[in-house]
Amino acid sequence: MPISAPPSNRFERRRAETRQSLVRAARQILAETGDTSASIQTIAERADVGFGSFYNHFASKAELFDAAVVDALEEFGQAIDERLRETDDPAELVAAGLRLSVRMVDSHPELMQVLRHRGLGHIHSDRGLAPRALRDLERGVAAGRFIAVDPTVALSALGGSLLSLVELRFARPGLDADGAASDLAEMVLRMLGVPPDDAHDIARHPLPDLV
DNA-binding residues per UniProt (predicted)? Predict the structure, then answer.
């Protein structure tokens, strides 16, 4: 889960633990079905907290499920950042981010199910992978690595392509996921103006381990 400053006393620690239990339960429900119609009682029971505790943390189910998606987005973004912190080339960052995201279907299945069910509405979120990808696109354009496109429009194409490939990965478990992700990364880089040979090579560079 995303890292935050630890609570300063026992009461705050217990309160934070209760809130995180509710968020975790909501994430599990989103991952399993994408359905937000579960009752507050069902969510509280899954979280192993009292029914009344729910309203100490959230005003509504919608607020809880939004928090669950944000929690997943941040975990997603942090996981990618941790593995690419030594990478500077915007083209490498875009390609590796796509390819690692597809690998996370196997290494982080619950997280990727949440994104599968709810990711489309968060392509331009200010949390998770989206702001990091936008940053890399803007740097690539500024450095002349990418053609002068609107980074926000490029993010739409990048996010939609990734979500489509994640959906394909879940729908076809036997898919050569690494091969498909490399092909997609190459196509995205070429769309951004990276020369074909360079795009082909970058899309097949060794990736860091996700474990």
Answer: 39-58
Global confidence as pTM = 0.83
Phi then psi for residue 7, to 5 deg, are: -60, 150
Which residues are within 8 A (CB) of 102 and not within 5 positions of it... i.e. 6 or more apart?
162, 165, 166, 169, 177, 178, 180, 181
Kindly state the tokens that stand for 31: 């991952």
Residue keyed to tokens 């189910």 = 61
- Largest distance between two CA atoms of the chain: 60
- d(CA 2, CA 20) in angstroms, rounded, equals 11
Q: What is the per-residue pLDDT across 186-205, written as a single tens digit (0 to 9) for each? A: 999 999 999 999 999 999 99
* 157 and 188 Cβ atoms separated by less than 8 Å: yes
- What mean pLDDT value characterizes the chain? 90
Q: Among residues of the chain, what percentage have pLDDT more than 90? A: 64
d(CA 40, CA 60): 9
Measured distance CA(110)–CA(198) in Å, rounded: 34
pLDDT of residue 15: 85
List CB contacts of 140: < 8 A, sequence separation 6 or more: 90, 91, 94, 146, 192
Compute the Cα dihedral for 136, 130, 192, 186 and give only its sign. Answer: positive
Task: Give start and end residues of each alpha helix (H) in 51-120.
Answer: 61-83, 90-107, 109-118
d(Cα 201, Cα 40) in Å, to the nearest integer? 50
The DSSP output letter for 88 is: -
Per residue in 118-137, pLDDT (tens digit) is 888 888 888 877 898 999 99
